[in-house]
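S1.2 Input.
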Amino acid sequence: NGWVFAGLPIIIRELPKKYAQKPYFVTIYKEMAAKLLSLQAADGYWHASLLDPASYPNPEMSATAFFVFGFAWGINNGYLDKELYLPAVIKGWKAMVRSVWPDGKVGYIQPIGADPKAVTKEMTEVYGVGGFLLAGTEITRMIKKGIIK
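S1.3 Output.
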């Protein structure tokens, strides 16, 4: 889910403005954003199993990073309502920052797989760090635009 949601903004950004199928991708992106918004945990993270978070109670940082990136990109580019999605971006970013170790290691990143995995703070993967950087880049754009003060 994280890969798909982070990929949609890149696809939408690269498609020509008059491309006939662009609205199709925008619709999928907005529908997915609405559902993901409803699945964010109170602590700001999303879990390895989106629909059964109790089965994987630990946070999952890579999906959280990809979702925060997708929401922030949508706000920055006028696809998502700032009032609705900005609180999730801020809450998600704060959660992401909590997953960073004092030495800079980013934890709570589940391994690559076809299904949810149990995650611990010690687990890391380079793609999760990449998601963290993507989200941070969009949040920096929000600060520069005055969306976040």
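S1.4 Remarks. The chain has a mean pLDDT of 95.
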